[in-house]
Amino acid sequence: MLTLATIFGLLGNITTGLVYLAPVNTFWHIVQIGSTEEFDSLPYVVKLLNGYMWVYYGVVKPNSVLVATVNGFGALLELVYVIIFLIFAPPRMRAMTAILFGTLDVVFPIATVVITQMSCNRETQISIAGFLSLLFSVVTYASPLSIMKTVVTTKSVEYMPFLLSFILFINGLVWTVYAVITRDWFIGIPMGVDLFLEQLSWCCMQCIGNLRNQRGRRSIMWWKTDAQLSISWTILLHCYTNMRAELWPNITLLRKEK
């Protein structure tokens, strides 16, 4: 029998898979023209590392196989993206990508797994893997802020694809619900950050649209933004309430012991 956590985990696998597949057209274009042009490899190197860490977290934590499966799929895709960079990038970018790949995607994850497996118990392994996954996820989700700067500077929303922004929002929403159900705050916190940043991007799109007097789209954008804000803040408040209920007794106990 499917539990609610399993249902949302499966939905999260679908939405996260779509997020990982989003750059396919970009890399198909790179392969066709035989050049990476002005694209930067760093986001894909970091996403590959992020995928590795979530796979490790899903493996060491009990009942988290759905976290491992989709991120294993994503890590394979990101590896393909990085290999394409290594093949088609100019010499300087290729050398930089190779150094980043060797350091962040080979040495660091291997060292993390070996050290934690040899010197830490299972709970510590889960905490370390979860914290690293949280950290790299926040970095990954914060990367679109540079696109928002471009949108504000150019006063054009063409640099911020609506469909990708919408998929990221749904992905964050689904995994946040999953985190609330399973009480997994290593998943809940970065997904909460994702939801917040998507609010910023949608509000940015709304403001730019209003400045450009896009009357036909304005009411729709207002409705979407208001609905998105209402849903995400309700879930984030629920996350905070549950997290505080879990952590506060432990904090009180530590104070009494002191």
UniProtKB/TrEMBL annotation:
An annotated Gene Ontology molecular function: sugar transmembrane transporter activity
Top-rank lineage group of the source organism: Eukaryota
Main location: membrane
GO cellular component: endomembrane system; membrane
Keyword tags: Membrane, Repeat, Sugar transport, Transmembrane, Transmembrane helix, Transport
Claim: Transmembrane is one of the keywords in the record: yes
Keyword Repeat attributed: yes
InterPro entries: SWEET, SWEET_rpt
Segments crossing the lipid bilayer: 41-59, 66-89, 95-116, 128-147, 159-181
Function (record text): Mediates both low-affinity uptake and efflux of sugar across the membrane.
Family: Belongs to the SWEET sugar transporter family.
Protein name, per record: Bidirectional sugar transporter SWEET
UniProt organism field: Hibiscus syriacus (Rose of Sharon)
